[in-house]
């Protein structure tokens, strides 16, 4: 009997594909296979096996099976199916997200000339019609196309790397030649040994010692001091010369061995001293421990500094004692070093780390350690929720309200909600912790879906910091000038520094100035790829004293950069005006005001590399930095006992944005950054500069009154049928051509008009708030509904109509439970 398998492929199509299975290549459900698809060989995941032959086509055979046993457990496959259905995402793309093992396969791209390409090449050789007049390409690009066709003229497959080296062609030009059918693109995918190895120098103890030079003796002494062996990377960091080492190898005194590379968490974060749990912490731990072995969602509402992390560690230890594994999610990579350091100090080698800053081989290594059961404690960002831990017994989501848990590309899942579903499938408790819970989680606890645990006091009964509001409208009236920092904030900062304490100032904008405008004609300098203003950046000086390249304008969406013009590109006026202040300008102003302060800055410009955050936090903990300015990165999870003052600058600008979540975000950010003050023995103080001192979100945050804020905000949400009292999705239509995107949006808009779904309200279609990103034009429709079932039915119907109308699935983005409507 013939055997067939269903394979989910990582492509934007909502279906699986049927392949035939040859004898001896029988895969299992949940294993990876390499299959032919069009002109490519790509990796998919087997979702099922059967004996029913397809009716309309002859199934192609699978090329190879990569795994002898399933890489994904049944409950992870079940979770993937739920994500695909809930978020209307292709199953293959969900499974690709779950399996971060691309380092284990080698993918090679080839190009071959097609018949149309031969015709074009012959026409050029024969002096045919001058196609340059018809082509939109520059003469230089047309010459490059001719070089490509000449290189491929013998009809053989040529690697893309060799082709680019020989002709200088770029990938965009190659894609255009494929569209013109001049050339074809083919790929191969084969297994690749991604195990990381390191070379280790090993002392040979039984060897006789001949006469040695001082340098050779130093090498032997260093090896002997380190137990007789040392990785070459560490040995050669000092003054060890390669010639001395090679001489010792030739004489048989040292041998070089290759071993599996180690991955250590030690030294990557600050470890706070352990304290005995207080009564509220013990009660929280008892509730979580009692639920182990069954599904139970908890909302842990603990004020900043109440010791939620200590509860997490103790709960993970309880799970480990029972032979169970645990996953701890943190919202951003910046928090991972601190969390990993705490876990490493507690659990040692049983900890695995998963986040996007790992190299592909490192990520694959950690993934396999987890799957083998070598690392039952996992810490990481949102994708760590898919860690293949056996015997999962506990999931913890720290700062559960944070937007970073929402994936901004397909599949657009929210790791917080996926964590709840994974816990349900695994029969384990899940703890959502925050000082400022999301309104969705709070309402679930009000409705009894989540069990609420409250920790209302800081550790050792330390008081919450006092908050003083500065009305910046009055500040302007009294001083006659628009100052970035108010008089009160400057005075309080100077007083804290004089006392030998530390201060933090939140300035939630990157760069130096975020708008550059011409005073003469009003032109704003915008990105050439995105409909967004360019941000002005000044050169950054590194720790080594090296300055980066000169002043620049940068797009924070696509990364486009250009030099700062001396004159307006539109009217040639020299009167360019720089508006707004970012964290870089904040740092410069603070250096002018406090010349003796040791100032550090934490934003995406200073924290770029893998270890930048760790070095910066180490300097802060040691007291080397006594004044830190930064974006919202400084607001999350940092426990620095020397910080007694926090300043909040420009936090309330979001209140003027057309976003129903604006008040919630401002309240959360203010509360979280305020919580960085007074975490040690000294009292803390917060100074908040605002243009909206009477807004309920500002007032509630100034008194640390979450319940008052949430009561007011929920009343507004209920009245407007916004989440959590309704469900919402953003349907984005995009194309490189504006007319095409607008036409597709009109087609879907008319379909919604003719096919009304009960309980579903459709807003749009209209231009997205950011009309163009990365040269792609964007239109959208917003869907609001009272029930999840009605919303998904409407979206599925729209996707079917889009396919029937010839709208490619890759040009549609369905964002269920969208947090950003941009």
Please, could you describe this protein's structure?
With 822 residues, this protein is of the alpha/beta class. It has seven domains: 3-101, PriA, 3(prime) DNA-binding domain (GIY-YIG endonuclease), CATH 3.40.1440.60; 108-191; 197-260, Winged helix-like DNA-binding domain superfamily/Winged helix DNA-binding domain (Arc Repressor Mutant, subunit A); 279-460, P-loop containing nucleotide triphosphate hydrolases (Rossmann fold), CATH 3.40.50.300; 466-511 and 583-717, 3-Layer(aba) Sandwich (Rossmann fold), CATH 3.40.50; 513-580, no CATH class; 727-816, 2-Layer Sandwich (Alpha-Beta Plaits). 33% of the residues lie in helices and 23% in strands. The chain has 24 helices and 33 strands. The strands form eight sheets. Strands 14-15-13-16-17-12-18 form a seven-stranded parallel beta sheet, with helices on both faces. A six-stranded parallel beta sheet has the order 19-29-28-20-27-26, with helices on both faces. Helix 19 links the parallel strand 26 and strand 27. Helix 21 (696-702) runs antiparallel to helix 22 (706-720). The chain starts with a strand and ends in a 6-residue tail after the last strand. Residues 129-133 and 542-548 have low confidence and may be disordered.
């Amino acid at each position: 009997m013939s055997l067939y398998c269903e394979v989910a492929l990582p492509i934007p199509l909502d279906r699986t594909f049927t392949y035939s299975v040859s004898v001896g290549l029988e895969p299992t459900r949940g294993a990876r296979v390499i299959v032919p698809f069009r002109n490519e060989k790509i990796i998919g995941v087997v979702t099922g096996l059967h004996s029913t032959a397809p009716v309309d086509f002859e199934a192609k055979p699978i090329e190879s099976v990569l795994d002898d046993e399933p890489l994904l457990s049944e409950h992870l496959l079940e979770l993937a199916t739920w994500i695909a259905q809930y978020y209307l995402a292709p199953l293959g793309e969900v499974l690709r997200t779950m399996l971060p093992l691309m380092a284990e396969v080698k993918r090679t791209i080839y190009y071959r000339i097609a018949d149309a390409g031969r015709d074009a090449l012959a026409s050029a050789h024969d002096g045919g019609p001058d196609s340059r007049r018809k082509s939109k390409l520059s003469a230089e690009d047309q010459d490059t196309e001719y070089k490509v066709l000449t290189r491929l003229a013998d009809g053989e497959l040529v690697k893309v790397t060799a082709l680019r080296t020989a002709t200088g062609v770029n990938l965009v030009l190659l894609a255009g030649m494929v569209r013109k059918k001049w050339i074809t693109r083919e790929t191969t995918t084969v297994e690749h040994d991604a195990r990381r190895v390191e070379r280790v120098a090993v002392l040979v103890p039984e060897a006789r010692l001949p006469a040695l030079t001082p340098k050779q003796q130093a090498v032997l002494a260093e090896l002997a001091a380190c137990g007789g062996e040392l990785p070459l990377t560490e040995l050669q960091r000092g003054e060890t010369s390669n010639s001395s080492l090679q001489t010792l190898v030739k004489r048989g005194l040292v041998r070089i061995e290759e071993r599996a590379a180690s991955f250590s968490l030690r030294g990557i974060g600050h470890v706070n001293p352990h304290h005995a749990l207080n009564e509220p912490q013990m009660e929280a731990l008892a509730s979580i421990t009692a639920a182990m072995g069954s599904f139970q969602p908890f909302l842990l509402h603990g004020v900043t500094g109440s010791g939620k992390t200590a509860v997490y560690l103790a709960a993970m230890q309880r799970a480990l004692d029972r032979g169970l594994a645990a996953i701890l999610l943190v919202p951003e990579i910046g928090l991972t070093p601190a969390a990993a350091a705490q876990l490493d100090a507690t659990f040692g080698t049983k900890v695995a780390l998963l986040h996007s800053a790992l190299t592909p081989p490192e990520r694959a290594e950690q993934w396999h350690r987890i799957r083998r059961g070598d690392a039952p404690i996992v810490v990481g960002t949102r994708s760590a929720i898919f860690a293949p831990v056996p015997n999962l017994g506990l999931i913890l989501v720290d700062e559960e309200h944070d937007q970073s848990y929402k994936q901004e590309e397909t599949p657009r899942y929210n790791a917080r909600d996926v964590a709840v579903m994974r816990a349900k499938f695994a029969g384990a408790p899940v703890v959502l912790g925050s000082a400022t819970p999301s309104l969705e989680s709070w309402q679930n606890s009000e409705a009894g879906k989540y069990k609420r645990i409250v920790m209302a006091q800081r550790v050792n009964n330390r008081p919450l910091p006092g908050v003083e509001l500065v009305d910046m409208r009055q500040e302007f009236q009294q001083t006659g000038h628009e100052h970035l920092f108010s008089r009160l904030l400057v005075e309080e900062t100077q007083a804290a520094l004089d006392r030998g304490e530390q201060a933090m100032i939140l300035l939630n904008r990157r760069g130096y100035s975020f708008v550059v405008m011409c005073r003469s004609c009003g032109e704003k300098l915008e990105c050439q790829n995105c409909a967004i203003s360019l941000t002005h950046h000044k050169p950054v000086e590194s720790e080594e004293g090296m300055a980066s390249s000169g002043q620049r304008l940068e797009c924070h969406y696509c990364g486009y950069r250009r030099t700062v013009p001396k004159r307006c590109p539109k009217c040639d006026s020299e009167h360019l005006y720089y508006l707004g202040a970012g964290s870089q300008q904040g740092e410069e102003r603070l250096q002018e005001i406090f010349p003796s302060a040791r100032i550090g800055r934490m934003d995406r410009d200073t924290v770029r590399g893998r270890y930048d955050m760790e070095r910066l936090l180490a300097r802060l903990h040691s007291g080397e930095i006594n004044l830190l300015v930064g974006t919202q990165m400084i607001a999350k999870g940092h426990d620095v006992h020397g910080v007694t003052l926090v300043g909040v600058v420009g936090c309330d600008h979001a209140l003027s944005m057309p976003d129903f979540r604006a008040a919630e975000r401002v309240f959360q950010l203010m509360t979280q950054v305020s919580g960085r003050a007074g975490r040690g023995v000294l009292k803390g103080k917060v100074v908040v500069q605002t243009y909206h001192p009477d807004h309920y979100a500002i007032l509630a945050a100034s008194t640390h009154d979450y319940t008052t804020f949430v009561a007011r905000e929920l009343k507004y949400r209920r009245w407007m049928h916004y989440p959590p009292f309704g469900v919402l999705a953003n349907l984005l239509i995009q194309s490189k051509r504006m007319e095409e995107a607008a036409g597709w949006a009109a087609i879907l808009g008319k379909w919604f008009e003719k096919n009304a779904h009960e309980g579903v309200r459709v807003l749009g279609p209209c231009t997205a708030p950011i009309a163009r990103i990365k040269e792609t034009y964007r239109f959208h429709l917003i869907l609001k509904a009272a029930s999840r079932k009605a919303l998904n039915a409407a979206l599925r119907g729209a996707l079917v109509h889009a396919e029937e109308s010839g709208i490619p699935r890759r040009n549609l983005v369905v964002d269920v439970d969208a947090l950003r409507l941009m």
